[in-house]
Write a structure and sequence with these properties.
It comes from Sphingomicrobium lutaoense. The chain has two domains: about 130 residues, Nitrogenase molybdenum iron protein domain (Rossmann fold); about 100 residues, Rossmann fold. It is about 40% helix and about 15% strand. The chain is built from ten helices and nine strands. The chain has a five-stranded parallel β-sheet with strand order 3-2-1-4-5. A four-stranded parallel β-sheet has the order 7-6-8-9. The radius of gyration is 20 Å and the shape is elongated. The protein starts with a helix and ends with a helix.
């Protein structure tokens, strides 16, 4: 069996089967060899990479949707069960699981895979250089409270990235409702704009007089990269560090 690097260097196209794998493929693979990405990355409400994905064919996450497209490698961040691997083999596709990243180190490991596959290409090497510089100069973290229209917490996989940006997410006081939590917040706020319009009815509390003034002073962040906490988080961490 050919190594992944040898297969990547041969003829054939690439595909990604989920939103988190889409990020790696669009950022680090040669554009002319990307044949298909998941439909989610083409939605601007879900991904900052939607403009890059606009001209690429979409798939529904199923291997069957890749049949007949000349695809040699398909990437996913989901576990691969034996039946899916057998189906991929019948379709002549090498199915590669990057694994869901649980922190910056896992993301860097995945980017290194792309750097080794496409040794003549600069994007992965450039990303790794920026990551090393950011990790080597991480400042002491400052406490911040997280606020979003959906009420969702960004998750442990994002904590490491925020620490590289010099931020530690602090919990609100216990036993309080949303309005009371924000009104009594002891630290500055980070406000995620992820699907703010979709959750507008659930976000009416953000307009409460006790909350509004603090929300207006909050640091706004693009909440879309937090879904995968993947390579797009490097841009966000650098931006937060500069502010």
């Amino acid at each position: 069996m050919l190594s992944l690097a040898s297969l990547a260097a041969s003829t054939g196209f690439f595909a990604s089967l989920d939103l988190c794998a889409d990020e790696y493929l669009l950022l680090f693979a040669p554009r002319e060899r990307i044949a298909s990405v998941s439909h989610l990355v083409k939605d601007e409400a879900e991904s900052p990479l939607a403009p890059m994905a606009k001209s690429v064919a979409a798939n529904d996450g199923a291997l069957e949707s890749l049949a007949g497209r000349g695809i040699s490698i398909a990437f996913t961040t989901r576990p691969i069960d034996p039946s899916r691997r057998r189906l991929a083999e019948r379709l002549g596709i090498r199915l590669v699981s990057l694994g869901f990243a649980r922190g910056p180190g896992d993301v860097a490991d995945n980017v290194r895979k792309f750097a080794s596959m496409f040794s003549g290409k600069a994007p992965a090497r450039d990303w790794l250089g920026r990551y090393r510089r950011l990790a080597a100069s991480a400042p002491p973290p400052r406490p911040r409270h997280w606020v979003s229209a959906s009420g969702a917490y960004p998750g442990e996989s994002a904590d490491g990235w925020l620490r590289l940006a010099g931020i530690r997410l602090a919990p609100f006081g216990s036993g309080l409702g949303r309005i009371e939590q924000v009104a009594a917040a002891r630290h500055p706020l980070l406000l995620s704009d992820y699907r703010a319009g979709q959750y507008s009815r659930n976000a009416e509390w953000l307009a409460h007089p006790l909350v509004k003034a603090k929300i207006e002073r909050a640091r706004k962040v693009d909440g879309r990269p937090f879904t995968c906490a993947g390579p797009l988080m490097l841009d966000l961490a650098e931006e937060l560090r500069r502010r």
